[in-house]
Amino acid sequence: MILIQVGASSKNKSGKKKGALDFNSGWKYAPAPESKDHIQLKNRYDLFINGKFTEPESGKYFDTISPSTEKKLAEVAEANSNDVDKAVNAARHAYEKTWSRMPAKERGKYMYRIARIMQERARELAVIESMDGGKPIRESRDIDIPLAAAHFFYYAGWADKMDYSTPGAKTKSLGVAGQIIPWNFPLLMAAWKIAPALAAGNTVVLKPAETTPLTAMKLAEIIQEAGLPDGVVNIITGAGATGAAIVNHPGINKIAFTGSTEVGKIIQKALAGTNKKYTLELGGKAANIIFEDAAIDQAVEGIVNGIFFNQGHVCCAGSRLFVQESVADVVIRKLKDRMETLIVGDPLDKNTDIGAINSKDQLEKIKKYVKIGIHEGGVCYQSSCSVPSKGFFYRPTLFTNVSQSSRIVQEEIFGPVLSIQTFRTVEEVIEKANNIPYGLSGGVWTDKGSKIFKVTSQLRAGVIWANTYNKFDPTSPFGGYKESGMGREGGLHGLMPYLEVIH
Ligand code: ADP
Hints:
By secondary structure, the chain is an alpha/beta fold. Helix content is 38%, strand content 18%. The strands form six sheets. The chain has an eight-stranded mixed β-sheet with strand order 1-15-16-17-14-13-19-20, with helices on both faces. Strands 10-9-8-11-12-22 form a six-stranded mixed β-sheet, with helices on both faces. Strands 2-6-5 form a three-stranded mixed β-sheet, with no helix packed on it. Helix 6 (186-199) links the parallel strand 8 and strand 9 (203-207). Helix 2 (81-99) packs across helix 8 (240-248) and helix 10 (296-307) packs across helix 11 (328-341). The chain is globular. Residues 180-183, 207, 209-210, 239-240, 243-244, 247, 259-260, 263, 266-267 line the site of adenosine-5'-diphosphate.
């Protein structure tokens, strides 16, 4: 039998909470759905190759559905290896004849134009992102879309300043970049990948994830509207086989991949022995560490932001919480109370904190891990919040009584599931936090700067936030250690993998 405690942390026998606030009774908001009236989606999207929407040679299309309604939104083309070949050839031609020959200042102008159109169409992009991917409109409106435009602005600024990127040396573009992205930040990941590639003078073949292709197709429209020369950016849709055809195409000079560690390893093997450069941004299992001297309420909010907002669909999600023993009880109590206030539901509602899980498969994976956690002896607690009956949704969940060897502590779940462990000393928590195959990100909450310096210098993670969590900026590099990947994206570091440096 599976036992899950649902919103019952402080209830007495009559079901009433002892001393705790009854959040469910007094905190109802009226629905505040974002309008879909201004959204124009075609029934069918072809491949964006050489500046035009082109029917796939495969002749095949697949559906993209809304994970919150399970209804079909549109169908998109499935590119086969001939389609990939066409896209790579278009990118090569554009690289040799146009983009690499164009003055860098002019390249920058196109990128600024793309950024501005993204801003003008921000509302439309945010709504489509939430419809296709399931994330709350608050996230797509306030984080994904503004940050995507910010990346184009930032890298547009670099386009004519390449000589300053490597003082004392010259740089050269690589050629055609093949870019494969996941479903958790569809438009933002496209911007992370395309913007530095273009600024450095490369051309692009990009493949969005099969469950979230629509904002990428909207980006193709924006690229057309910006008048970017044909073939500089090609966007082709499909699943793993299409991605593999990009990776293995001999005309590709660089692969940039964000996705699972499992697929990252397959790609790394496929690229071994070739002269293709690559960057891989893979899984994570971040430690969020709370010391007893932290501002506890602020830290609790940071934990909630780190793992529950955005459904835990973030590779840098703070999915392992380490709390100093002396404050563990109070942190866990406050966390459970806060979980009770979280609203799970319609991604388009502005009150929603936790939207839809991206796909049925992902929902099944989360359920599987929760069962594993319980069978391993973990104590599972879930918010008692209501969950829509249609669509793929999951309640915010936390586990106590877990150990370092528990699978839910070691493996990436990619859902709103938090595991909590306690510690006594700084040394102990650093040891525990590092005892994992991943090393993408982490968080530390303390009043003491010295502890921040000690923890951040000893945690093996690419990004560590102090007294905050999940903050991004285009100027700041992002990437991992160990099985979380290699290379950095963002900032000057993110430009370098698209350049050859000539000393
Ligand atoms: P996630 O678990 O985040 O869905 P995946 O690694 O499965 O991550 O997918 C990330 C991206 O990689 C998607 O665009 C997917 O289509 C693509 N992909 C999946 N398998 C392969 C493969 N063997 N080669 C290249 N790309 C792949």
